[in-house]
Amino acid sequence: MVERTPFLDVLTQVLLFLALLVALAPFAIVAIAATHDLRTVNQVPMPLWPGHDFIKNAAEAWERADLGRKIINSILFAGGVAIGKVVIAGLSAFSLVFFRYRGRVLIFWLIFITLMLPLEIRIVPTYAVAANVLSPYQTLLDLSGISWLFEKMTSYRITLHWGLLNTYTGLVLPLIATATGTFLYRQFFRTIPDELVEAAKMDGAGALRFLKDILLPLSKTNMAALGTIMFVWAWNQYLWPLLVTTDAAHGTAVMELKELIPGSFGIPDWNVAMAGTLIIMLPPLVVVILMQRWFVRGLIATEK
Amino acid sequence: MADITIRGLRKSYGSFEVVHAIDLDVRDGEFLVVLGPSGCGKSTLLRLIAGLEEISGGEIAIGGRVVNRLEPRERGCAMVFQNYALYPHMTVADNIGYALRVAGVSKRERMERIARVAKILELDALLDRKPAALSGGQRQRVAMGRAIIREPSVFLFDEPLSNLDAKLRVQMRIEIRRLHQRLNATSIFVTHDQIEAMTLADRLVVMNAGRIEQIGAPAEVYRRPSTHYVAGFIGSPAMNFFEARAVAADRIEFGGNAALDVPRNTRLPPAGNTLILGVRPEEIQITNANGHGALPFDVEMVEELGAGRLLYGRLADADCVVASPSTIASSTGQRVFVRILPESVHLFSAETGGRIEAAG
Questions:
Q1: How many domains does chain A have?
Q2: For a tag on chain B, would you pick the N or C end, based on fewer CB atoms within 10 A?
Q3: Structural domain that includes position B312
């Protein structure tokens, strides 16, 4: 469509520019605050001209929040969640789209329903399961009377226990099931022509061979897109890591951010808190920038 | 050695049957063309042979071995698809060699065979390209290469030329024919294009509504269509049909007062019964008004074809097309006189649609 409306063109450009300013302003303030010393950052109003203390503040934040350790934890956690989601979603969509079996539609809708049950809603049962993965089976055994029978017969009490608290597995596993990802893949897989599937069959490729040689190479961009989104999403998780990890060794960077925020009676060193924020923001930013080319392609179009 | 024997083959989706008890024998090395309108079950038939669809009843044997329960890869068939179905992320060489890679053929042998196939199909220069960078005809050839490289005993073609433009189609048609002469593998070619069918086939199978209407050499199917349906389907422009009545053992009447003497030994139904008279447009001659058996023909439209003309109009109260040489002047609104050659007519039963033959 070709339109010649110079006035509207200028107006939209101005609007866009204003929106950009609004979106960037908080970041600018964070970045500027991170460069001031303690006295300057607490001036009212805070000077909007950068100071010289960024390196010092960053070093202080790094030290205080043990960011070296925490960022590695966060990368393991977010990376694990992203990879887990990409794999699980890919496999479930592969099964839903390319195989015909009883209950396929039911399974699809069950996955769909989990969209309405985010982690925050099922946090209590999820925590209970993470605390002891085998607790549902224990309950079953107890309710069915098998435990009682077993105890009577052998005088041993069955106690099944497998705890995931304070482990990387516990951090990652409950978060990797994803309806969104399954959807994304399903929609993409459905655009793959039947004839391509049949051609692979005629060429003698079985289901796994087809997955490996044809489907995966074709969905590279989709995997990159899903992986990127999920990495950022997992990086920003706060509630779940806070619940599952009690020892500091397994804490994530975003959790540690709280340690940097000055308490009511502490020293109001917002400059250090802001420097820490900037550092913690960095890894997902790098991931997004690196993956950007793939990411956009995966979301907007399927490669022909 | 790969003849195909099909007995009582049925396919239904739920309670809806699309292929009704088909019997068919394909000889070893034969080029068989299955022709029919869209939705007649011809592609389904091909997919049943390939093993891409499950058989609902009957039996398919390839080279004497019943393949009903075998996976596509175990049947020894290769298939060329309508949309080529090339793997978009693989190069031409990888596309052609994929079946060998799956079969675990060593890389060296694979490259050799790819090179050989590429040479046959003149794809040598394109081996490193992706399908997206190929023209329609080139993609078509890659799809053929993918089938050839496996050295299958049976080739299945599912309307492979329908996505090409007219000129390329003619060229590929000749290439396919040449390839068949060279490889001499049993081939089944499905199409809805009758020119393709006539030119390619050793034998032609005409299908309609999930049934086989006629099997025969192309010329035979054209000259002696065995049913009313085949008569109307084969030939372009289509055969003209008139409702007719038998009035004597060797005479029929049609369209009011037109009459035609048919050969004496024709097995006409008893006098008074209706039947269908079929005449090809090229078997109606333009004649002068007082010639023997001359019938008035009102020209309503003229199509100029260069080599000849098609005259559309009314003959004996029915719509009719006459193919006339361009040497005879004719124009819209004109009344001309035409003659039907009695020895070239086709007669069909009005009830069954079956052909009424001359005896002996």
A1: 2
A2: C
A3: 237-349
Name every residue whose Cβ is closer than 8 Å to that of residue A287 and which is 6 or more positions away in sequence: A228, A231, A232
Residue pLDDT, tens place only, B322-360: 988 877 777 788 888 888 888 888 999 888 888 987 655
Please report whether residue A162 resides in a domain: yes
Work out the mean pLDDT of chain A and round it to a whole number: 87
Name the nearest CA neighbour of A60 among A89, A91, A36.
A36
B103's tokens = 């079969």
| Residue A91: domain span | 73-257
How many Cβ atoms are within 10 Å of A193's Cβ, its own excluded? 12
Nearest neighbour of B102 by CB, restricted to A195, A209, A303: A209
C-alpha dihedral, A99 to A102 to A108 to A109, nearest 10° = 160
**Has residue B105 been placed in a domain?**
yes
Are residue A77 and residue A199 in the same domain, yes or no?
yes
In B, which residues are within 8 Å of A213 by CB distance?
87, 98, 101-102
Cβ contact, residue pair B89, A198, below 8 Å: no
Cα–Cα distance between A92 and B274 in angstroms, integer? Answer: 64
Specify the CATH number for the domain of residue A244: 1.10.3720.10
Q: Does A193 touch chain B (CB under 8 A)?
A: yes
Same domain assignment for residues B271 and B303: yes
Q: Are residues B188 and B290 located together in one domain of the fold?
A: no
pLDDT per residue over B25-78, tens digit each? 999 999 999 999 988 889 999 999 999 988 998 999 998 889 988 888 888 889
CB atoms within 10 A of CB B176: 23
Contact call for B81 and A218, based on CB within 8 A: no
One domain for residues B105 and B138 = yes
Is A123 found in the same domain as A204? Answer: yes
Prior bond of A45 cis (ω within 30°): yes
Residue A151 neighbours by CB under 8 Å, 6+ apart: A157, A158
- Cβ-defined contact of B102 to A217 (cutoff 8 Å): no
B71 with B193, same domain: the answer is yes
| Residue B357 maps to a domain | no
User: Is B64 inside a domain boundary?
Assistant: yes
CATH number, position B241:
2.40.50.140
Q: Per residue in B214-236, pLDDT tens?
A: 999 999 999 999 999 999 999 88
Question: Which residue of chain A has the CA closest to B154?
Answer: A202
Give me the total of CB pairs closer than 8 Å, taking one residue from chain A and one from chain B: 60
| Test mutation, A202, A214, A222, A304, chain B, max B CBs within 10 A | A202
Contact A195 B103 (CB under 8 A): no
SS3 B324: strand
Same domain, B156 and B8: yes
Interface pTM, i.e. ipTM? 0.80
